[in-house]
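Reopening this ticket.

The earlier resolution said the output was attached, but the attachment link was broken on my side. Pasting everything inline this time so it's all in one place.
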Amino acid sequence: MSTPTNEQLSIALQEAARMREQAEDPSFVAKSLLSLNYRFTELEHVYHALEHFIASGQAVEAHTSLVKAMEHYRDVDLRAKGESQPAQFGL
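Inline output:
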């Protein structure tokens, strides 16, 4: 299966948003697409932080950015699941 172009994805996301706004999503396809797109975007931040960490020779600043990106995604994931997490101190 090929990846949709940016234009195709944009059209699909617009249609999914319209479906959700007009309560035309009986099978939760639009909700799923919007949620997965949001989570994928957040995971791309983790991926880019990881790439930078590896390319930087594992510098301390890059490590900190990677840890923060991972923690942010964990929070996004827990919120998406309707769960909460105790506050973390430090990194």
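Reporter confirms the inline version is readable. Residues 6-80 form one domain. Residues 5 and 48 are 21 Å apart (CA to CA).
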